[in-house]
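Practice problem: predict the structure.
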Amino acid sequence: MKNTKNPSETEIMMRQMVMPGDTNVHGTIFGGTIMSWMDIAAAMVAQRHCENPVVTVHISDIDFISPIKLGYHVKIMASLNYVGKSSMTVGVRVDSENPFTGKSRKCTKAYLTFVALDEFGSPMEVPRLEPESEDEKRRYENAKTRRESAKKLSEKLTKS
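Answer:
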């Protein structure tokens, strides 16, 4: 395993189609289905980075921006944004695409944090992340800020 990896080495894009069993009474996809697909995509990114099993430990800032209709195509893009000692934060964006017009729009986004597990199921150290592009560096700094803010908030709430 390499000691350092770039986000582009592990990012993924996957597609799904919204089927009748995925929809609610409004003819749009269940939020839980989208969350499941996002979790799968993000886990694949984290696994590719650490080359070991991972578990989801936190989901933050999930926003359902726009509904996705029955029959539409769903594009899920996931990329590693930040790495701690054993944790990895993956940013996921979900777009929907009308299969008849080709028009797409942003529908959901979230940040999922995973912990890498060794052969005994204990947290293990993961390779460092080395962002290269300006976008990767921006996402890294934003994730770092979100992580620090969440830690401060947690400490403040614990004291209350």
